[in-house]
Amino acid sequence: MITKITKSLTLGGWLLIGFLSILPVTVGQGPPRPTAFTHIPQLIGASTTNQVTNRFGPTYHLRLETLDQMNIPLARIRLVQIQGVSTIRFIPEQTRGSVGSNRAIAVTLLQDEKNRTTDIILDPPIGAAEQLTIELRPFRNPRVAGTYQFSVTAIPDGDGAIGNQIGVARLQFFNSSGLSP
Fold first, then answer.
1. Is residue 118 part of a domain?
2. pTM of full prediction above 0.70
3. Domain count within the chain
4. Structural domain span for residue 165
5. How far from chain centre, in Å, is Cα 113?
């Protein structure tokens, strides 16, 4: 008699598993899917208003373009200083962003000096077919002349976003005599 009950529970268990396996999976089950660009934004260029070392008050311009076919808005730009003797630090409250010729957008700057990383968060994120200019204000130009390079990564909007390295921004600085080491 005990054997018959065990067999019927086992058969019932298999029937239950079979029934559950044909039910549709609902949204929200499983881990969130990462978001990624289908068409990656382009780095257009970088420039500075003053190339003399140790000068106060320059502005560094970073220009990007989003493509017509871009599927997810651009939410963040990550700069990693990969070359240059001095670490360049920016003034967060003096960072500006604009889309097109004059539409201002809010930007937030997060800096990690130890890792020479700066994140620029765009609010709102930038959609397709836009030109973006970021104006970064350093405390001062670097004290040591030379080429300073930043790896530029574009990060889309969304949970689990996967960024794409879109280029290297280069800035050249000279001593006040006009010579670079």
1. yes
2. yes
3. 1
4. 42-173
5. 17
